[in-house]
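I'll show an entry:

:::
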Amino acid sequence: MALITKLDDLPDLFFIDLFNYLSSTDILWAFTNLNNRIQTLINERGYFRHINLSSTRLSKFDRLLSILPLNQIETLIIDIEASPLQLSRWPYLPHLTTLRLYRLRDFTDATNFILRHSTTLKHLTLETNDLFMQVSIIQKYFQTNIQMKK
């Protein structure tokens, strides 16, 4: 006789271990709104607070953006080359403290996004294809732009 295990029979620890092997995008894509128990586990473990959408294509990004609780996001990681339109589509994230943008080619969208979140950002990493830029290198540029906007 075969033993049948239902999703609801699996312990929370199973999902926590499984989530350690998945990206935040995969967790959100596959498990968000699956059922109340798993949704609560996702919320409690903070998978909405630290979002890495580096490999997310635009169609998946649009769907994820509609289900994310934007007021919970603290960390956002985006690979611009893989997802070039993401920065222009994000609304304001009131608790964003860490932003990492990789493979930047155009600083216009990045500058607008950074300026929009300048009051909450504490950690900023920008990387281009040719050059890794530390915050101290570009800090003067952004401070000048922030003062000009005021």
Remarks:
- Residues 131-137 have pLDDT under 50 and may be disordered.
- The beta strands are 50-52, 75-79, 98-104, 123-128, 132-133.
- The CA atoms of residues 101 and 126 lie 5 Å apart.
